[in-house]
Amino acid sequence: MSATATQETTRKYDLSFARWVYQNVEGGDRLSLCMQCGMCSGSCPIGTAMDNGPRKLFMMIRAGMKEAVLTSDTIWNCTQCYNCVVRCPRKIPVTSILQSLATIAVKQGYAPQRPTAKFSKAFWLSVKRFGRTDERLVTAFYYFSFGLKEGFRRAMENLPIALKMVKAKRMHLGLPHRAKGAAELRAIIAAAEAIEARDRREG
Ligand code: SF4
Ligand code: SF4
User: Fold this and answer.
1) Considering the domain boundaries, does residue 2 fall inside one?
2) Would you say the CB of residue 90 lies under 6 angstroms from ligand 1?
3) Which residues contact 102 (CB under 8 A, 6 or more apart)?
4) Using CA atoms, how far apart are residues 178 and 134, in angstroms rounded to an integer?
5) Is residue 8 part of a domain?
6) Which structural domain, as residue segments, surrounds residue 92?
């Protein structure tokens, strides 16, 4: 094998990746029990909208295909319906694994341009600040995460829908509503983030 081919292979297959996933991904410790039966992918209502589906993704983890796994749209398109979890004969927490992989993909810089990642970030900003989602804020954060020009274009394109929602009283005008206990929620989130950071340092 040429040096270039060896480098290419090393990039595509990180043989320590499966062990890393078993130890660092929520629910990953059960992944070695997967028997590749395909019940998860077969049960998934949006399997056709996924590039790989959970069964294949778990095989790719075993094969050490780190980059392909962390850039797969399977981890982003999962709607967390838990169909697969209920049906998995090995009781593998498929949903938690996919969700945890998405978080890792963001932290490791594999998902900066994913629309779903951008939307999740916008959603999270609103929940963290106000204790609830404000559709206008989430939409604005999301649209303008694509840049000023693109954000403006999207806002104008969807303005007629927004106006209809206001008319139908499905979207309010004025300041965002704040949930009761938003400050307490922020304190809980801050404590959870501190625990996560500590676990990462010690892990
Ligand atoms: S249903 Fe469970 S055991 Fe079967 S492929 Fe999916 S995760 Fe693996
Ligand atoms: S939880 Fe995700 S992967 Fe599992 S069936 Fe639902 S959408 Fe598919």
Assistant:
1) no
2) yes
3) 75, 76, 111, 117, 120
4) 9
5) no
6) 16-110
Same domain, 105 and 122: no
pLDDT tens digits, 56-89 = 999 999 999 999 999 999 998 898 899 999 999 9
Q: What is the DSSP string of 100-141?
A: HHHHHHHHTTS-TT-HHHHHHHHHHHHHHHHSS--HHHHHHH
Question: Per-residue pLDDT tens for 159-188?
Answer: 998 899 888 888 888 888 888 888 888 899
Within a domain: 68: yes
> Is residue 132, in this structure, part of any structural domain at all?
yes
Q: What are phi and psi of 118, to 5 degrees?
A: -65, -40
Choose the residue to mutate in 56, 57, 58, 74 for probing ligand 1, maximizing ligand atoms within 8 Å of C-beta.
58
CA distance 101 to 50: 15
Is the pLDDT score of 1 beyond 50? no
Phi, psi dihedral angles at 184 (to 5 degrees): -65, -40
Residue 3, pLDDT > 80, answer no
Pocket test for ligand 1, best of 40, 94, 97 (most atoms within 8 A of CB): 40
Q: Which CATH number goes with the domain that contains 99?
A: 1.10.1060.10
